[in-house]
Amino acid sequence: MKILLTGSSGYIGKRLLPILVENGHEVICCVRDKERFSPPDSLKSKIEIIEVDLLDKASLKNIPRDIDGAYYLVHSMSSSSNYELLEQESAINFRNEIDTTNCKHVVYLSGIVNESALSKHLSSRKNVETELGKGKYNLTTLRAGIIIGSGSASFEIMRDLVEKLPVMITPKWLNTKCQPIGISDVLTILSKTIFNTRTFNKDFDIGGPDVLSYKEMLLEFGKMRNLKRYIYTIPVMTPKLSSYWLYFVTSTSYKLAIALVNSMSIEVICRNDEINKILDIEPIPYKKALERAFSKIERNEVVSSWKDAFISSNFNLNISDFIQVPSFGCFKDIKSIPYKNKEECINKIWSIGGENGWYYGNWLWKIRGYLDKLSGGVGLRRGRTSENSINTGDALDFWRVIYANKEEGRLLLYAEMKLPGDAWLEFKIENGKLIQTATFRPLGLIGRMYWYAVLPFHGFIFNGMIKKLA
Question: pLDDT averaged over the chain?
């Protein structure tokens, strides 16, 4: 069968893609920017990639007419202040276009929406479900709560809290009940639902066997890591204060923190387990989902991370707009040095950031990250998805990977920290030398003053870094 996969570059989409191919489907990967989509080489000959922006009706014409089914895995949560309207418009545009194709079945992954009073985030997902349900095709909505897996937002936020804070003074929403589900079960349900007639024109809640409070989930996480943790909830922390707390302690962006806090005050518990019986599956417990997540991390097999999505940053950029580093009106710091061993040099470049740090003056990088966090930026807490591989579109601390070609020996990063201008950092192997170029395009007088203020630190950090790399 021919399947359209929207959100192919997202956390769920990246993991669902190989399963669909393995099941014998022809997959049309629907992405907004081809430059930031890097499927495994083993899949490239078995898929088709098309550029589609659901808010651009003209781009929707790229969708083939002969598709049999589609997955709707697109969410605009926290990408802008009016994301509710954007999500609704995206759903309407998608529905209208899919109605002109041969598509028989659409599967939409949503959130559990059983409460009468919903958060802005969950209300938006419910509206999307309503709009998609007006199409000529059969719709199946799968409503999930907290998804537990290596690289998932829920998992990484809990990891930040548990591993950094021995004692937590927390908001009262930590006592809210939820029903977490492992990412492996989400993928199984998604792959088995498509074209299953027993699921047509129905909605199902999907969750694991455990109903837990967020506090219980954190404490169980601590046990898994052999960490004794103490959690105290207080009623005086408002949603806004809670959002700031989550933002500063974890790697989440502030906009995402607001959406999460507002949703966490609402119970997300499954109505029933009907979908498990239809598909003949038995979801794994919360503890087992944690074990599998850490197993993936320890083996460096994290396929995708929420941090690589643009909701983790302050930008909503197209990679192609930044791949050509400008020169006019820019300041540049260019350094070059002969390398001792080409392969070793490239491997060091491809391991930069995250737990490895930046090889020189790491304490200064940390201070810069902390100052960025204080000013509303992303800081250094995003780290990196994999220890030794980098793909275009990945988040790398407070940078975004714009270009990564290991054979060529070129890595180009774009700064997502708060700056009075635009900044790029490039590493390139050429003529027996490593060339390291920092480019800054200032925004007005403040931008120029900023460049001269940090120039002494650049000389110290960048000199040391290139020597270590080479």
Answer: 86
Look at strands 395-396 and 399-405 and give their pairing: antiparallel
What separation, in Å, do the N-terminal and C-terminal C-alpha atoms of the chain show? 50
309 has a pLDDT exceeding 80? no
| Bridge partners for 395 per DSSP | 400
Q: Considering only 106-110, 125-129, 215-219, 270-274, which range has the smallest mean pLDDT?
A: 125-129
Per-residue model confidence as pLDDT tens digits over 251-281: 777 677 776 776 677 788 998 899 999 999 9
Tens of pLDDT, residues 232-248: 888 776 767 777 777 77
- What six digits make up the tokens of 413? 């990063």
Beta bridge pairs of residue 27: 3, 47
Q: Which two tokens stand for residue 421?
A: 């201008």
Q: Please give the backbone phi and psi of residue 224, each rounded to the nearest 5 degrees, phi first.
A: -60, -35
Instruction: Please name the residues in contact with 65: beta carbons below 8 A apart, sequence gap of 6 or more.
Output: 100, 101, 102
Please report the DSSP string for 302-326 in residue order. Answer: ----GGGSGGGSS----GGGTSS--
CA triple 418-259-8, angle to 5 deg: 80
> What is the DSSP code string of 217-278?
HHHHHHHHTT---EEEEETT--HHHHHHHHHHHSS--HHHHHHHHHHHTS-B--S--HHHHH
Question: What is the distance of C-alpha 32 from the center of its chain?
Answer: 15
Tally of CB atoms within 10 A around 403: 19
What does the alpha-carbon distance between residue 161 and residue 121 come to, in Å, rounded to a whole number? 23
DSSP 397: T
> Which DSSP category does 431 fall into?
T
Rounded Cα distance, 68 and 1, in Å: 6
Q: Cα–Cα distance between 213 and 348 in angstroms, integer?
A: 42
pTM of the model: 0.80
Choose among 114, 275, 264, 127: nearest CA to 207.
275
Query: pLDDT confidence of 323, banded at 50, 70, 90?
Result: confident
pLDDT at 311 over 70: no
340, pLDDT greater than 60: yes
Q: What whole-number distance in Å separates Cα of residue 293 and Cα of residue 183?
A: 9
Residues with Cβ within 8 Å of residue 144, at least 6 apart in sequence = 109, 110, 111, 112, 181, 186, 205, 206, 207
Residues contacting 350, CB < 8 A, separation 6+: 388, 389, 390, 404, 406, 411
